[in-house]
Protein: Oxysterol-binding protein
Organism: Cyprinus carpio carpio
Amino acid sequence: INLPWQLPPSCSTGQSKVAAWLQESEEMDKCSEELAYCQSSLLELSQLLQSLEILQRTQSAPNFTDMQSNCVDLTKKEKRVSRRWRTKSISKDAKLQQQSLTSVPLSASLSQVRLHSSNPNLCAELADFQTPVTRLTDSIDSASDYIKLQEDFCIIAQKVHSLLKSAFNTVAIEKEKIKQVLLEQEQTGQSNQIITLRRSLSQALSQNAELKTRLNRIHSESVLSEQVVSVNIISSPDEAGEPLHVGIPLSQQVANESRLSMSESVSEFFDAQEVLLSASSSENEASDDESYISDVSDNISEDNASVTDNVSRQMPNGDLASGAFRNGRRTCLPAPAPDTSNINLWNILKNNIGKDLSKVSMPVELNEPLNTLQHMCEELEYTELLDKAAQTDDPYERMAIVAAFAVSGYSSTYYRAGSKPFNPLLGETYECIREDKGFCFFSEQVSHHPPISACHCESQNFTFWQDVRWKNKFWGKSMEILPIGTVNVMLPSYGDHYEWNKVTTCVHNILSGRRWIEHYGEVTIRNTRNTACICKLTFVKGNYWSSNVNEVQGSVMEQEGKVIHRLFGKWHEGLYCGVPPSAKCIWRPGSMPTDYELYYGFSRFAIELNELCPELKELLPPTDARFRPDQRYLEEGNVQMAAAEKQRIEEQQRNRRKWLEENNIRHQPRFFKKVMDSHQRERWVSNNTYWELRKDPGFLKLENPELW
């Protein structure tokens, strides 16, 4: 007969099945249902046990010995036909027994027969039971045997009941535990996410409120544009009279100060751009002196100090405001950069691996409408740092700000790996007067072999000058640019004279792929007037995919080597002073103009450098880079004319150089002079004549070389 309280099939598989239940909620639910069914069956078993206890008190109990023999015979014959109880002749005692049995449910009777099989002393399987009740009564030997069997059966049944009940309770408890753990984990994960989102939102709202407050303050202050601040311009000692006053709009000064103050608390950065791809000489002219080095020394600073003291801001007609300064400047170039995808650089450079590319003539499409003299001026984009340094009393903080200015000069190279500047011609000049930044700048190409560019910048707060020779080497996939020279800054308010070297620049993926720029090397900044502190910066060399690309690390130290300030950041993002996360941002670049990728990657400051306004045409010398025709044609988008003019100008320079050599004439720079430092090294400094000649008699009244 079929057993009505069979164990669940999943229980037979042991621990592996239990493990599966713990992983799948459906299996656990199925287990609970099966065990609940077992529990109901056990209730029926309990009722059977009560009935059997009643039966054992009767005198006409069935003969279980005959039952065993009959079961064994049926098992051997493999007869498993299920039949109902049938009797043909029932005695009086049998009727009494039958009445006793009818008081028990049929299912309980069947369970009773089945439960007898769980006793090892009973038959293993009971397939059929057809013996008449009268025969069963006669086959019982003694009542004592029946009682013993009943007692054994009750003991085993109770054990089974206890074990199944315990298993059911254990599985139910474990299931509840697992559900509780999963529920707690889910609630904890959601709670952490909510807390993180709330914290981020709070920080964003706080930063937004701070920025909004600053912008409102800047906007309210910018309304004062009608008011001007008087800037004293020192006249030359030969001129008697009062210092010249120049009106500079207050709003522009506020903008400069605000840009600097905002960089102290805002950690959002904007990238800038530029790259110096070639030497400062014409493309097809070779360098004769590869070993030349131009440096700076201490005793030469006196020459430039006299410039600040005697010739600072001398301008023609004694008036800077009349045509020399402009409040509005252009915000976009006339034409976008030309397409260079059809130029095969390998055919041009394959025979020049390991050589200086200054002798190689490049297609004009690879140039940008600026030259190296203008690039030197571009390093002064963030002169507000020097203005702030000139007002900082602490020498270590002052050194940190000067270090930020040294790093800022590289920020404009970030987007400029796709083009190279024009190489200046010998005697070419460039002038830049920025009333918004309060400085006057001029530069000149003072030597052709070796190629040397010199510049000088004057301001009330600082004096800046440098002479640099650009050497470059092509290595197949990349090109290295090695600047040789020293940058100098004087702060008259403290009598400081800072000088530092430049790092190596490398342009990667010259022939194929996306070009990108890297600066690496060590920079040492010294104050030659006070050795109390020194600054060392490291431009970390990495690769395009590394996390430390464009990284800068450094420190401001005492003379004994003790670190006072730590500096870190990226040269295209900003520079911090201090230790994270409490470090202070002391500089960050400005935002880029719209569609800068289409316009050579120029920053706003770079866009303004080659602008030629009508009022400047009669004031600039004819050698100024703004008048160079090939550069102007390229800026206007006329590539064909730019290429033709470039070829003509280069040929004209070769002829001019040949004539000088044949007549044994040596070129003399107009606005710079060569001096020797204490180490007998050549240096180029201003001869203090540029602004004087510009004022009187004016460059157009002088004899000027014809460069183009």
Remarks:
- Residues 10 and 16 are 9 Å apart (CA to CA).
- The chain has 18 helices and 19 strands.
- Confidence is low (pLDDT under 50) at residues 1-12, 74-130, 223-301, 305-327.
- The first helix runs from residue 15 to 23.
